[in-house]
Amino acid sequence: MSVIVLVGAGPRAAGLVERIGANAPELFDGAVEIHLVDPFAAGAGRVWRHEQSPLLRMNSMAEDVTMFTDSSVVCEGPVRTGPSLAEWAGAGSGVAGLGGARSGGAGLVGEAGGAAEWAVDSSAVEFDAGVRAELEEMEPTSFPSRRVQSAYLKWFHWQAVDSLPAGSTVLVHPTKVVRITGSSQMRQRVWLADRPEPLVADVVVLALGHLDVEVSAEQTAVGAYAAEHGLTYLAPAYTADVDLSVVPAGEDIVVRGMGLAFVDLAVLLGQGRGGTFVRVDGRLEYVPSGREPRLHVGSRRGVPYHSKTGYRLRGAAPEPPRFFVASELLEGTGEVDFRSRAWPLMAKEVAYGYYRELFTGHPSRVRTGWESFSSRFASLDWYSDEMRALEASAVAPADRIDFERLDRPIAGLSFGSEEEFQEYLRGYVADDIARRSSAEYSADLGAFLALLGVYGQLAVLAASGRLSGEDGWWHGFFSYFASGPPPDRLEELLALARAGVVRFLGADMWVEAVDGVFLAGSASVPGHVVRGRGLIEARLPVHTLEHTADPLLRSLVAAGDVVGVDGLVRVSASDSRVVDAAGVPHARRFAVGPYTTNKAYAAFSRPQTNAPAFRQNDEVARAVLRFLAAEAAVGVVDESVA
Predict the structure, then answer these.
(1) pLDDT tens by residue, 113-142
(2) In sequence order, what E strands does 106-258 have?
(3) What residue stretches are annotated with the FAD-dependent urate hydroxylase HpyO/Asp monooxygenase CreE-like FAD/NAD(P)-binding domain (predicted)?
(4) In this model, does residue 169 exceed pLDDT 80?
(5) Which backbone phi and psi does 523 adopt, to 5 degrees?
(6) What angle do CA 367, 368, 373 make, to 5 degrees?
(7) Crossing angle of the two packed helices 146-162 and 129-137, in degrees rounded to 10
(8) CB atoms closer than 10 angstroms to residue 347
(9) How far apart are the first and last CA of the chain?
(10) What are the structural domains of the chain?
(11) In the chain, what are the helix, strand and coil shares in percent, each to the nearest 5?
């Protein structure tokens, strides 16, 4: 029986298992033995594990999350449809799982003698009382808890296992891989942290997901300073993994970062410490427990991420990308510079999606028809005087899209006092909540959907190895504009701000370790300085291969089996095979995820968007199965140990 080891057992690994099952009837005659190696539960993995606070939620609506391919997905393998999270919740609430095992599917067992034991069908997905209650009340437009998503992912994992060829087996190892050995000509030895003998595999796929990094010299120095002076310091980390009990109540704490990690932090240090939200005369108010710190938060932009929209399109359905198309950019030779060649087309694509919804969904707010506007729009460069004139002729100033203002909304603004700035920023956040909650501004959703299309095309361009000059700005802008929290999270943030638990520092934030405290301020309120008894870096660590803390990647780099390109693991563009230091793809090793040069960011796929992760999973699964079929046809493998 052919053996596959998947290093990582989270959502990406589950998607690969599903694609292996879907493609096997065409490409591979026989059963497979799959080993899933991950310290966390199969299906959910680390980020989506059940064992985290029930207060933490997804930042996507239930109807916008799916683990199944659909008719929009362009791939060689068969499309196998299934329920979105919302559909699954509607069909399965009140039962332990949704659907039983089909006859002929694989069996899932625990590691022999290991800690995990698994049942054989999908009824093993159990709902606790909180998850069950949430499922019963869930609407398609709800933003579910991460525990609900954990249950959906575990259920999908079982469906994926059940789709494997008859006689297949899946074994789960709740541990880590620390080393892999073996050339392309021999079976791979996969060494686990908790056993002396390796697994022996025909193919290994790295689906590592969220990765930790080494603590930097700067973070080490700041930590030492904090320890010396009795302060609190928390380095960048996934918020659900951090021990927040070390953050003292009632103290002034500086927070650097205003994205999703900060939103989770505010939830856990506010409501997570016993505070409550109540509605008074229609306005949400926060009642402190007395255990909260005072969070002084700032960032480069100085504003929170935009909230998710709470409405649907009112106009024409979105179109596939027509201006920013990776295949067209790759027709020539040489590098594709991000700023000069890619971004102007990306901006035009997003603006087109925005104006398409504005013109077709809100025709009373524009001065011409969509057909004439779009025809002229298509012929113009985004950064041209003619494009600005076209906008001015047809669209009121308040309805025009301005990427520079979107990116830095308070740049250049200066306030005479801290309280004046607090009032201004509370108003800014309130306006954002109102805009993202009212279908009158559904053009923002048009832009969001266009951003998803751009995201997929950029992934193709990046995978080609010819994209240059992208320094991380794009991902930050995408996350800020399109991947923010639910609207009610920002409403809670406003309540926390009015209660004095959160204070806004402003844009271009600075922090200094001076006089036994952390001093902080910003360009928004010149002269205003906070003296903090702690500093929290509210952001995920940026993983690079040079500074990875993952023992497997470190060992592969040391052996010359992995090479970095701009901090990412180099893989072949066509099938994600791992490329070694000599530039040669390894026939038996693959890698998928945001830590690779074929990166697809860690976001769940939205239905009907031809999501990059689905396409990549299909490519990798088919490459794995073709290799196994070719090897089976030869019938002889060198079993010597590398």
Answers:
(1) 333 323 333 445 667 899 999 999 999 999
(2) 107-110, 169-173, 177-181, 188-192, 199-201, 203-206, 232-234, 252-256
(3) 5-210
(4) yes
(5) -75, -15
(6) 125
(7) 90
(8) 18
(9) 21
(10) 2-212+543-634 (3.50.50.60), 217-305+485-537 (3.50.50.60), 326-482 (no CATH)
(11) 40, 20, 45
- Spatial contact of 268 and 238, defined as CB atoms under 8 Å apart: no
Of all residues in the chain, what percent carry a pLDDT higher than 90?
Answer: 83
Q: Say yes or no to pLDDT of 454 above 70.
A: yes
The angle formed by the CA atoms of residues 6, 631 and 32, to the nearest 5 degrees, is 40
Which SS3 state, helix, strand or coil, does residue 507 take? coil
With cut-offs at 50, 70 and 90, classify the pLDDT of residue 601: low
Task: Dump the DSSP string for 416-458.
Answer: SSHHHHHHHHHHHHHHHHHHHH-GGGTHHHHHHHHHHHHHHHH
Residue whose entry in the numeric block shows the structure tokens 């998803």:
452
CA distances from 321 to 16, 88, 318 (A): 26, 30, 9
Which secondary-structure segment (H or E) carries 152? helix 146-162
- Do 188 and 200 contact (CB within 8 A), yes or no? yes
Q: What is the mean pLDDT of the chain?
A: 91
Adjacency order of strands within the sheet including 169-173: 107-110, 169-173, 32-37, 2-7, 203-206, 585-591, 577-579
- Cα–Cα dist 165/146, whole Å: 31
Residue 392 burial (CB count, 10 A)? 12
Distance CA 239, CA 437 (A): 27
- What letter does residue 122 receive in the DSSP assignment? G
Top pLDDT among 292 and 483 is at: 292
> How far, in Å, CA of 609 to CA of 198, rounded?
40
Residue 22: closest CA among 631, 577, 621: 621
Please provide the DSSP assignment of 464-526 as one string. Answer: TT-EE---SHHHHHHHHHHS---HHHHHHHHHHHHTTSEEEEESS-EEEEETTEEEEE-SSST
Q: Which tokens go with 599?
A: 């990166």
Q: Which residue carries 């563009």 as its tokens?
A: 573
pLDDT average, residue stretch 206-224: 94
Structure tokens given for 553: 């990647």
For the chain, what is the radius of gyration of the CA atoms?
25
Question: pLDDT tens digits, residue range 334-388?
Answer: 999 999 999 999 999 999 999 999 999 999 999 999 999 999 999 999 999 999 9
- Residue 146, Cβ neighbours under 10 Å: how many? 22
Pairwise CA distance, residues 311 & 408, whole Å = 25
Residue 342 CA to residue 424 CA, distance in Å, equals 35
Q: Are 433 and 439 in contact (CB under 8 A)?
A: no
How many residues are present in the chain? 642
Q: State the Cα–Cα distance between residues 48 and 41, nearest whole angstrom.
A: 9
pTM for this entry: 0.90
What distance in Å separates the CA atoms of residue 377 and residue 348, rounded to the nearest whole number?
9
Q: Which of 161-170, 186-195, 479-488 has the lowest mean pLDDT?
A: 479-488
The dihedral built from the CA positions of residue 544, 550, 554 and 555, taken in this order, carries a sign that is negative
- What's CA 101's distance to the chain center, in Å? 30
Which SS3 state, helix, strand or coil, does residue 274 take?
A: coil
